[in-house]
Specification:
mainly beta; Immunoglobulin-like; three-stranded antiparallel sheet; 20 strands; about 40% strand
């Protein structure tokens, strides 16, 4: 929904599977044939995926000498499509929180990597009431997110939740329809941070614990 950097989430390392006979396709310049596959995630610098986000994984072949070379004809599968599933374009999209094992196969070789889905990406307007839960934290705002509807759309943020803002992102409450933001409990528990640095945001959320915040903008 974090593709992108953030803290407090974990992902298992790729675990290549070795086949003694190797791959029958030699590497460039007659180098050793591919012995294992390695899943790379250039779009996941933080090592995990936000709910509602997607990423494109890559595969490299590893030779006997330890060189990495391109491999082709790769097919992908997810062992938990209810957590994250591959679409027709090859992107892995997170649909619920949890851990998923994804497998890449090329010829006789395959390897599996475990990816954690943690945190939640928000890039669609909040037009009806919803809750940003502690279990789904951190919550990452990826755009100008409008909170408002008819009847009133209430965004409730649970205590202890961290809200991260990407560049140019903000909450715009009540710009369209009627909206309000409520921090359920101690307002000081709501932390507004910039996703890249995890530093305290320069903007503050004015009285989120008390009623309507119509017309307010919240950003990093």
């Amino acid at each position: 929904m974090y593709t992108r950097s953030c803290a407090r989430v974990f992902a298992a390392l790729a675990v290549p599977t070795r086949f003694p006979c190797g791959n029958d396709r030699p590497g460039p310049g007659g180098s050793s044939p591919v012995q294992t596959l390695l899943i790379e995630s250039p779009g996941l610098p933080r090592g995990s995926l936000y709910l509602n986000d997607s990423t494109l994984l890559a595969v490299r072949g590893v030779t006997e000498r330890g060189d990495t070379i391109p491999v082709y004809g790769v097919s992908w599968s997810s062992r938990a499509p209810d957590v994250a599933a591959f679409g027709s374009t090859g992107y892995l999209r997170a649909v619920s929180h949890g851990r998923v094992d994804v497998t890449a196969t090329s010829g006789s070789l395959s390897t599996t990597r475990s990816i954690q889905v943690a945190g939640t990406l928000h890039n669609r307007p909040v037009t009806s009431s919803e809750v940003w839960s502690l279990a789904g934290s951190p919550h990452v705002v990826d755009s100008v997110l409008i909170v408002g509807g008819d009847p009133v759309a209430t965004l409730t943020v649970e205590p202890g939740v961290s809200v991260f803002f990407r560049d140019g992102a903000e909450l715009n409450v009540g710009a369209v329809g009627e909206g309000r933001v409520i921090a359920d409990g101690d307002a000081a528990a709501l932390r507004l941070e910039h996703e890249d640095s995890l530093a305290e945001a320069s903007a503050s959320w004015s009285n989120p614990a008390r009623g309507s915040s119509a017309g307010r903008r919240v950003s990093r």
